[in-house]
């Protein structure tokens, strides 16, 4: 089961390169990082968990910041 989650996370992250929109790219990267983190909590690989938490947080932050900028431009 853990290998399947890892392969799914890899496929999701790889798919992010096919999206042009920043929102889709960031959302997909955040989802993949969260899936990889779910694997790492199993064996507590702290550096890998920390790296994926940082990647997921940065992707989500930039996703929400971009959507907030878009909303203010539309107003």
The sequence of SSEs as H and E is HHH
Strand content: under 5%
N- to C-terminal distance? 47 Å
What's the number of domains? 1
How many H/I helical runs?
Answer: 3
Gyration radius, rounded = 14 Å
Uncertain segments are none
What key phrases describe this protein's structure?
single chain; about 80 residues; mainly alpha; elongated
Folded structure, characterized:
There is one protein chain. The chain starts with a helix and ends with a helix. Helices cover 87% and strands 0% of the residues. Helix 1 (2-15) packs antiparallel against helix 2 and helix 2 runs antiparallel to helix 3. With 75 residues, it is mainly α. The longest helix has 29 residues, at 46-74.
Q: What is the secondary structure topology, with strand pairs?
A:
Layout: H1 2-15, H2 22-43, H3 46-74
Give a summary of the structure in a few sentences.
By secondary structure, the protein is an all-alpha fold. Helices cover 87% and strands 0% of the residues. It starts with a helix and ends with a helix.
